[in-house]
TrEMBL record:
Descriptive protein name: Histone H4 transcription factor
Molecular function via GO: DNA-binding transcription activator activity, RNA polymerase II-specific; RNA polymerase II cis-regulatory region sequence-specific DNA binding; zinc ion binding
Keywords noted in UniProt: Metal-binding, Nucleus, Repeat, Zinc, Zinc-finger
Domain C2H2-type: from-to ranges: 79-108, 221-256, 287-314, 342-370, 371-393, 402-430
SUPFAM superfamilies per record: beta-beta-alpha zinc fingers
Organism field: Panagrellus redivivus
GO cellular component: nucleus
Gene3D superfamilies for this protein: Classic Zinc Finger
InterPro entries linked to this entry: Znf_C2H2_sf (IPR036236), Znf_C2H2_type (IPR013087)
Length: 466
């Protein structure tokens, strides 16, 4: 099967819209049937009018951030120690760096955890379990790295949003780095590091040794990073050193910046801006997807979303078609291979993906819910629960939004309607779907989706196998 073409959505123009239109179809399929007639999608209508987003309102800083803005000017900021019970502030990064080192020396250096226990990261709402004091040190160095990236993020934030609107995401400064030393995987190096910042700088320095003499017969630079027990070399190659340098951040863990409010890390400024614009209030997101009615603040976010509607990769074992290869790989792992490698340390239950394990831990083993509603005192264990709850505060909120097309029943969630379909109506899944999916209509209600945008490559490949 030919590879699905990659489209650039940096600009809004008719050429890009036409390219996307030429490479996809809308394929309707009634539940329980296997055939559908391809119909072209009007992506000009889908994109809708391009209306600039209004100016946002300023909000207060996140209490779980290493950095806080104290005024509108570039130098109006403080570093904040968010170790539990501390809160000390510093005008310079070096002050926070030395202060966290003192926390380690005074509380962990040279000590052993009590029998049958472990150390815990002292950073507020991180609380990662750590085996030894050396692991605590390395883990705290990753928090220092995070703090420096949040300062960079604040500088970028001021340029993009001078009023310092909040990103709207409420997350803790949890870093899943368990304190093992960082080992450089560049060929013939294997140098260990206890400090993430030093490790990143060291890995980047290897690019200084890459020259035109390293070009292969095709004129490309190979990534020389090796990893795993079998010491397998990274298969990626690039036409220039700049692209190789960017790729190397995948191995070093380097990031361009971190959100000064929620702490999320980003590889570039564009993704950082997308992060902020995704969570605008309902009334400020003015661009609407014609297929699902979801609203977006920028044309770029809308176009990235529209690409997800185009199903371009088919499962080799069933009729399921998804929007990307990684989604199909996940589907085959969970549905066909039934692989469950993620194990809960508390009870031993296993899960196919890490997200399911995290949901299990939050629901079964965490005492205090950590996701808090901004409009009321309620707290939730999962972010998805919080997102659903926040909708109840909207003026146009509809409690039972999921409608059955077979009877007058209405439900609060899609999962409840799915159970209704199978238990009451014995309805099979629409052909090519791995679950019941629902489309938001113009009246605000969700109804069963029986049509998909299928890429031409998938349709042509299916014809060859008939």
């Amino acid at each position: 099967m030919a590879a699905h073409p990659v489209f650039s959505f940096d600009d809004v123009d008719n050429d890009n819209t036409q390219m996307l239109l030429e490479h996809c179809h809308l394929q309707p399929a009634e539940p329980g049937t296997s055939n559908g007639t391809p119909m072209s999608v009007d992506f000009n209508a889908l994109l809708g009018p391009l209306i600039p987003s209004p100016n946002p309102a300023p909000v207060s800083a996140n209490m779980f951030s290493w950095i806080e803005a104290t005024g509108p000017n570039e130098n109006d900021y403080n570093y904040v120690c968010i170790v539990a019970g501390c809160g000390q502030r510093f005008a310079r990064f070096e002050g926070l760096d030395c202060h966290l080192t003192d926390h380690y020396k005074n509380e962990y250096a040279g000590r052993l955890p009590e029998a049958g226990t472990h150390f815990t990261c002292p950073v507020t709402r991180c609380n990662l379990p750590l085996k030894e004091s050396e692991h605590v040190y390395r883990h705290l160095r990753s928090h220092v790295f995070h703090a420096s990236k949040q300062k960079t993020g604040l500088d970028v934030y001021r340029e993009m949003f001078p009023d310092l609107r909040s990103c709207g995401f409420e997350r803790s400064p949890l870093l899943q780095l368990e304190g093992e030393p960082w080992i450089c995987g560049w060929k013939n190096c294997e140098k260990p590091f206890d400090d993430l910042t030093q490790f990143v700088d060291h890995v980047t320095s290897h690019m200084d040794d890459v020259s035109s003499a390293d070009l292969d017969e095709l004129g490309t630079y190979h990534c020389e990073w090796v990893s795993g027990i079998e010491r397998t070399r990274c298969p990626q190659s690039f036409l220039n050193r700049r692209c190789l340098r960017v790729h190397l951040t995948c191995h070093s863990g380097d990031r361009a910046c971190a959100c000064p409010f929620c702490g999320a890390l980003f590889t570039n400024r564009t993704k950082f801006k997308d992060h902020v614009m995704r969570r605008l209030p309902e009334g400020e997101a003015t661009l609407s997807c014609a297929l699902c009615q979801k609203k977006f603040a920028t044309s770029r976010l809308l176009k990235l979303h529209c690409r997800k509607h185009v199903k371009s990769v088919k499962c080799a074992y069933c009729d399921v078609v998804m929007d990307c290869a990684s989604a199909v790989a996940k589907h085959m792992k969970l549905v066909h291979a039934k692989i469950k490698n993620e194990k809960c340390d508390e009870c031993g239950m296993t899960f196919g993906i890490k997200a399911d394990l995290q949901k299990h831990v939050a629901a079964m083993h965490e005492i205090e819910p950590k996701f808090r509603c901004r409009s009321c005192p309620k707290k939730f264990r999962w972010e998805k629960q919080l997102r659903e709850h926040e909708k109840t505060h909207l003026e146009n909120y509809i409690a039972n939004r999921y409608l059955c097309h077979k009877c007058p029943m209405k439900y609060k969630s899609g999962s409840s309607l799915s159970r209704h379909f199978t238990s009451v109506h014995n309805l099979p899944l629409p052909n090519g779907f791995n679950r019941f999916q629902y489309k938001k209509c113009h009246d605000g209600f969700y109804r069963l989706q029986t049509a998909r945008c299928i890429s031409k490559e998938v349709i042509e490949a299916a014809k060859l196998h008939v």
